[in-house]
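Form 7-S
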Amino acid sequence: MTRWQTRRSWPVVSAAFLTLLFIAVPAVAQAPSQGMDIRTGIVLDTYRFGDEEATGIRSLSLLTLPISGAVALGQRGTLQISGAFARGSLEASNGESVEVSGLTDTEVRFGVRMVRDVVFQVQGVAVLPTGHSTQTPEEAVVAGALAADLLPFRISNWGSGGGAGIHTSAARSFGDTGFGVSASYMVGREFEPVEAEPFAYRPGNQLRLRGAMDHNVGPGSKVSLTVTLERYSDDALDGANLFRSGNRVQVVSSYGFAPSSRTSALVYGGVFHRSQGTALLEVAPDVPSQQLLLAGGGMRLPMEWGVVVPSLDTRVFRSDDGVGQGWITGLGVSAEVPAAGQMLVPSVRARFGNVLVREGSDSSITGLEISLTARF
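Output:
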């Protein structure tokens, strides 16, 4: 498995929906103002392909056990830690099964936040190499399939050798309008991605710039717009420049409103464009430019025992060479249930779509996502 195959910048639709639904001040990371916040859970994603002979895959699944924690350090400091255990499995059309499992890399963030007229935050970021970054060729096949841009799996790789960086953000409101900007720079470490091929690979450093704006357009209504630019330095293989990733541009807009005094709703849409990636050595292929279109929405319906959140999302993936492009739609519902001092969030989502394997050959896709999250 190569890094340019798994460096996926497309966001998961459910994560994007929750981020947009609960955003208060753009571009500023949310952290507890006091005390500690711990979240854990279990997520199962599984997909089946209608034409397994065309895809070579009968089914693909991912079980994820994420855990994250945040603690306030005094009035201004925050410490955040997140990681996961994941197990991915692929059943081929001939009935053979292959699996990859293990910890993912662990991310640690230490930040200082200052709130005056401008909310300003600086974070130091360390990615600890706890993940299963060196894989057998069989495991690499599974990991590469799970990194497909069309399918919204929760993770796209188990490990990338670790790294470090810095993240800064600032936000300010002017009446009914809020503005935010953020910038981050991450430096990756060298690692060996394939067990049977002892070569050293180092991913290119990442620069991410983001600007966001939201505006109150009426009682209980708000529009928001977020624009993100990502640039990477060249990937390296045994010290030689290997691959030059194309720039990423992401634009997401949303409209939140209150259909009634007790309910809230949100609709969103976005486009994510990745420019062509260029191979600098013959061992690496060029990667065509790609686009991902997102659209969807949902509602929050308060009940006596908690909140019900039905939602609908659609993603359309396009590639200049046509390989792997297609569409997928999800319809699901989640609930927020307070219980014994914690918040339980069960969720279920059904998915269906279609993927173009190669010219003149496509396959239907059906999927199911089941999760349970607990927040302490």
